[in-house]
Amino acid sequence: MNSKPTALKALDIISIILLAVATYLALVYAPTEKVMGDVQRVFYFHVATAWVGLLGFVAAGVSGVAYLKTQDLKWDLVEQAAVEISLIFFFLAIVLGSIWARPIWNTWWTWDPRLTSASIVELIYLAYFMLRQGIDDPDKRARFGAVYTLVGAISVPITFLSIRMFRTIHPVVIGSKSAAADGGFNMTGDMKLAFFFALFAFTIIFIDLFWNRIRLGQLQQRIEQLKLKVME
Amino acid sequence: MKKEKRKSNYLRAIGAIAWKDLAAELRSRELLSGMLVFSLLVILIFNFALELDAKTRTSVTAGVLWVTFVFAGTLGLNRSMAIEKDRGCLDGLLLAPVDRSAIYFGKVISNLAFMIIVEIIILPTYSFLYNINLFQPGLLLVILLGSIGYTAVGTLLSAMSVQTRTRDVMLPILLFPIIVPVLIAAVKASNGYLQGLPTDQILPWINLLIVYDVIFIAISFMVFDYIVEE
Amino acid sequence: MIEVKKLIKRFGLKTILRGMDFSVEEGEFVALIGPNGAGKSTFLRILASLTRPTLGKVSVAGYSLPKESAEVRHELGVVSHLPLLYVDLTAEENLKFYGKMYNLPDLTTRTNEVLEMVGLTARRGDLVRTYSRGMQQRLAIGRAVLHDPSVMLFDEPYTGLDQDASAMLDDVLRTVAARGRTVVMTSHDLARTEDLATRFDVLSRGKIAASATKKDFGNGNLLSFYKDVLAEGKKQ
Fold first, then answer.
1. Which value does ipTM take for this structure?
2. Is the CB of residue A124 less than 8 Å away from at least one CB of chain B?
3. Number of domains, chain B
4. Which residue segment(s) compose the domain that C13 sits in?
5. Partner of B168 at 20 to 30 A CA spacing, among A40, A67, B81, B161?
């Protein structure tokens, strides 16, 4: 428990290597997009970070349900880890998206469904942390946190749908034939490689961070326990 | 037989909770007068902030009305739950041998009643001030559906926020990001009726409201236990 | 009437009750005394089905908690230091409201009986907002006995009451207990407790440290008994 598991150490190193390779593929290996130029390279990491945010979002909702079912504080740790990772990565995705949007759409920000939903998720997460901060009893804190992530997990897809019912200008890159307008493009084989590799690399990074964060939570809990023991 | 009795007990408890909220409120009028004055102030502020001349009015009326209802609603929800929490009344309700969800539904009914009373007063006032006919059956239906969704989630989250240290600030922060779909759909549908759009363009938004209402009433019914129990 | 075995209650990592054993026979009036933070209130909340036990067996009136909490609630009357009343309703309306929550038949008769018992018939139509603390507490007891429970729990019922109000509350508590009800009470007011209860249990560090009847320590010696028990606990 005290020393880091070897598997986790290995995963840390693999994650760093994957990140380096993904960066190389995105910035050097992939060909420059004809219309948009180099700024399009942001796209690889933009999608990958949003993907990690989404993974965290789903993981948070699932562990919220698991906590309510089992009342086991372990799931509260998992939920918090998922929320924190999702918060950071959605933020990165939004920032990267803005960098891309500026030259292409001529604006930092658009009220597009994905972008808006991601920022509403961010607001839900901020509310989540404020809620937790206002409660002293750890069981109650965990229960309220779980209920709120669950409510959020259900409302966000509906939010996404309802914003989509307004017209969207976000390009649909994959599975769309006439995407050339509004900053869409067709990926060449090399671009696809960079894109899917980035997705893969960030998935592994997600697992690595998730694992580390859960372990950190467990250690924190252990410290609390020892503190209580000493005080008695 | 026993089951039958339980069922009648459940409905009686829901009715009792809603009734005592309304009876107490009709006497003190603290909550309703707070919500009403606040609503009028919000409209007044919008009047100057947006310069509600005849042209802008048609396009922003729906938005102004819903922002007013949503803001005034949080005042009511907060107060209604604080009454239960402050004197330990929530414990009193929990001690009664009825399912906890009866407490939720009782509170939803009284909170919804407060919302509707405020709306019944605000709508003619707005009509009078800005010479817009708000009394169209479709628009009233949208307002009802939107208010149901809003109070369904609001009652659940106010039961949570009232138990935190920072409770007065907490409710809007928890509630607003969750009710974005209600707000979008209600504003869009209300706008549709005010602009006289054909029904088939408004219908998707009404469907969305109904779906949201059903989903969140069901979810709240399932999780309310976790919020009031220790 | 009440059986508690190896009860453990944790709040997160903090353990409040550590393997507590406790039992009460029918008709007993047990006073639970102990220092602040010993877990008295938590324990009563567990008996009242308001808080879930972490581990251990709890049964009240033959029903186990938390499984059969709905049945337990029928048998249970609770008075805490908060009145659990709605201040913008009258005394009568408060009782009728709670009567509906318990699904009682013939509410009017029962409400009249209870108001008579706690001595509030004359002011039944007044808003609870206008009541003194003592009257509110009497009405709170009326609310608790409305459905004629067989087990009553009192959590610090004297908090915030002056001498007169406390004396009046004594009378009401006696009437309640005299009907063969089982009572568990927590209180800091040892003098009053000594008059009312038949058995005294000291709760310290999440366990029952000692249990005695009046015969065991003689009249007027509850305080010294209590101090001895706590001193004993510190030595260990």
1. 0.91
2. yes
3. 1
4. 2-235
5. A67
